[in-house]
Amino acid sequence: MGYLVPVAAVVAALLIGAVILLRLEADPVEALGVMMRGAFGSSNALMNTAIKATPLLFVGVGITIAFRANVINIGGEGQMVSGALLATTTALVIPELPAIVVLPTVLLAGIIGGAIWGAIPGALKAYYGVNEILSTIMLNVVAVQLMNFLLRGPLIDPAEIERGTRIPQTERLIDSADLPHLLGKLHIGPLVAVLVAVGAYLLMWRTPVGYRIRAVGLSQDAARYAGIEVRRTIVLAMTLSGAMAGLAGAVLVFGSESHRMVTDGSTAGFTGSAGFNGIVAALFGGLHALWTIPASFLFGGLLVGGLAMQRAVQVPSALILALNGLVVVFVVSSDRLRRRLLARDYTGRRAAPTSTNDPPGETSPAEAEANDR
Amino acid sequence: MSDLFTQAVFIAMVASGVRLAVPLLIASLGEMFGQRSGVLNLGVDGIMLLGAFSGYYAVLRSGSVWYGLAFGTIIGLLLGIVSAVIAVTLKAEQGISGIGVYLFGLGMSDLLFQKLVGTPVPISSFPKVQLPLLSEIPLLGGMLFRHSLVVYLAFVAVPVSMWVLNRTTFGLNIRAVGQNPESADSLGVSVARVRYATVIIGGTLAGTAGAALAIDLGIFQQNLTNAAGFIAIALVYFGAWRPLGVMAGALLYGLVNAVVLQMKTLGIIPLAWSDIAAMVPAIITILALVVVAQRFRPPAALTTPFSRGT
User: Fold this and answer.
1) Residue A237 CB coordination number (10 Å)
2) Residue in A with minimal Cα distance to B110
3) A207-221 mean pLDDT
4) How many angstroms away from the CA of A279 is the closest CA of chain B?
């Protein structure tokens, strides 16, 4: 029963979406049909969905790591931008070498860029007690300004200055940094993202490092008593989380059709709000890296389908963002209900409804936080 | 550089800084009440965006800026009630549920704008009210006393907030519920009722702040607030949960933004470098967060939902 609660949350969000569509004088059944066909109805649609799901999956996997450590990383946007910036800069300075050398180098640069942007709030939290929600928000602001500065200034395409158009974008990046394509427009990004998700699953549930991260998330005091370096673990979790988002940023650049980094002056202009939508996917996936794979695919599909809906029934695709917000609200608001139901499932319906004897791993950061204080 | 320091330009710059601080100040004061009672409402930016669109739309249709401000405020009130249900009754994880409210506001305000308005049409802004006598003071008069009514009200709200928090029973209850909800509960204070009140105050003021922003700019566009709601939340920490500190933070942001704008329009710095300048308040805020974390403690029950008898 417990597992049905997130599904019910999505259904509820879609129902509200239907009401909004009705108010906007669009046919909800037609809109939903267009959305589903646009997202999953053809091989072309599936490829678009996979590409759109890729940054959500990277960010979402990073979120599962941070949230499991009871660190609320909402700096995915900034970490994506910083990863993309370091990767782009690297691609601009290294010479044209075989792709086998260039590609890993620039992707690693993306990972490092994101990792730095994650490590800063991690260290500020661990060593100075700074609330990570606020520091990651502020670093989002800093990252977007840094992006605007670099793309309008030092990294701008020289041709833009010559022509006088000054569009804030880099020149076309070297060919060897382009992500190889598997099939048509489908590049290797989605495949890499799935492999990263599997890797993160193994890290979190099959290695001592993952055990330490989860232990710190469940109870810092207990973890400390067990000899775990709590501060270092928090920094590590945030660094890993940022690294994943940084990789998402790099994949966005090197997988883009224009093969350059472009800004429109806002963060969302580059990330497509993946830094936030990745949180939606991770929550929907129960903060579990493997479940985040289908969750990202679903939410990527909603984004692609939203665009199809916009063309067919003239309802702006911003509706999808609004519905994603409702999914988050419903999932976290029903969290207590979900855990109550899960507890009942596990104890054969005999436990009291308020039992807190959750199976390990099903305890949310919220509860762990409550236990800490 | 001399252009920057002619008296007229300098006065205009400070005046615009004071004006730019207002939406942040209003939203931040509201958020402060929620946090003092133990609720971190992260949805401020989403509420501001919906308040901004509602205010803009109402002005567009009615022609009255006051009707617009009122409509944005009412939308904020409604979203405040929803936020309170989520945080207090449903006891949702506050750090995350607010992100949901934010995404909802971001998407919904854009959707409504595209569907109901389409191409941005400028609207009239708040009329300026020159305060008699005060506006004649050299320097200060031009900086502080030739603003719209909204600006004066926002700054009057600072001492009012101080009075409510520190001198009234309601304020005492807020602080008690934020520090030690168990004790407050055992003394007969309804934790839920107090938190409902503060979160609704916060939502209402966020709606007002959004509408004030849109009407002040005379325009609406997608993501108009550009994370101002999140900055407002950070300013509550920046100000160490005190109205005067919050005001100082809002003024810092407003003034730095005004200086950057001024430098851009005068062409003193190239456009690219103005982005670096625009980073300064965010970096100062991060440093301030470090200092505040060493010196002040947040309300002890912040982000912790309250359940009786657990």
Assistant:
1) 30
2) A318
3) 94
4) 9
**Which residues from chain A sit within 8 angstroms of residue B282, using beta carbons?**
138-139, 141-142, 145
A4-372 CATH? 1.10.3470
Cross-chain Cβ contact B289/A332 below 8 Å: no
Please state the ipTM of this predicted complex: 0.89
The per-residue pLDDT for A177 is: 86
**In chain A, what are the domain boundaries?**
4-372
Q: Is residue B63 packed enough to be buried (19+ CB in 10 Å), middle (13-18) or exposed (0-12)?
A: exposed
Q: How much is the pTM? A: 0.89
**pLDDT above 90 as % of chain A:** 55
Q: Check residue A352 and give its pLDDT.
A: 43
Nearest residue to B18 via CA among B151, B132, B160: B151
- Contact criterion met (CB < 8 Å) for B99 and A279: yes
* Domains with residue ranges and CATH for chain B: 2-295 (1.10.3470)
Select the residue from B50, B96, B180, B292 to test the A interface by mutation, using most A Cβ atoms within 10 A.
Answer: B96
- Does residue B218 have a pLDDT over 90? yes
Say which of B100, B226, B304 has its CB closest to residue A329. B100
Position with higher pLDDT, B65 vs B308: B65
- Cα–Cα dist B86/A136, whole Å: 23
Residue A333: predicted pLDDT: 87
**pLDDT (0 to 100) of residue B4:** 57
